[in-house]
Amino acid sequence: MKRIVVALFAVVLSFGVLQAQENREPDTVEIPTYEELARMYTKLVAQVDSARQRAIEDSILIARFVEESRQAALAAMPPPKKPTFWTNTLLSQLNFSQTALANWAAGGNSSVSLGGYIDAKANYDKNDLIFQNRLQAGYGFVKTIGDIMKKTDDRLIFDSKLGYKATERLYMSAALGVKTQWAKGYKYTAKDTTLVSQFAAPMNTMLALGMDYNPWPWLSVTFAPLTGGLVIVSLPELRENYGNKPDEKIRVEFGAQLRTKFDKEIFKNVKVDTELILFSDYLNKPQNIQVYWDLSISMQINKFMNANIRTNLIYDDNIKIADKYGNKAPRVQFREILSIGFSYTLSNK
What we know:
2 domains; 16 strands
């Protein structure tokens, strides 16, 4: 029965489909006219122009936003530093010691000692020109209870050098040096004190023209065949001690000078600064070479503490020094200072 019903349903459905196909009208295609195509083209062009205009406006807004952001970022940035060709440093050291004794069976005296040292440098380096300046100032004393205050260190030294590059490591140079002391100095004996120096007694000045060889930044060798110097002794009673005649306040020297300078950190926080000067006076016994050798070895313990040893050796045939018997003759002068104390360095680089 079910099969009969399904068959009848299929026959009816087929008949309906055939009838619908017979009654369907054929498909028709409408072709637009020229005017309609023109209107469509105009409308399409207007839409494209509108989209392009919006894109241009958006691009302008984006570019304006980017430029304003860039200007704001530049305004917020710190101004660029101007290039500086100066290197300035200032080293200051202060050393202090004190001893107090009361009813000390082993004996001794209470004492106070103080020493200060300043080393200022201002160096200019640009292209082929160098200009180096250095000022050293030091003073120290010891005061023992029951005795007078005695000077242990006294120096005032200024050096300046101007150089123009001739080759990669060779400079034509002119150097100026001035050396004296701050205060009066005495030779102390058991019975008396004798004045042996004071400010500008003596004062040594020197101008040297020559060549400066710098194989490395920490080594400089200067040979100056044209070197003129003045030895100034303001006190008449001290003039013969420094090679001047009794009525000669200023003595002229002219000769050749060789100067070697080494300044380098050889180990971490350990620095060696040494300078050797040899001078031959064409006008007075050129075979007798004057020798000046300064050595400084410093160890930085921390930011504020420093251990330093400084030595100074001088031999000048013109300087006469008396021995314990009063006999005056040229002698090797040597000084050594060992200090531990406060140290601080300021620098612009």
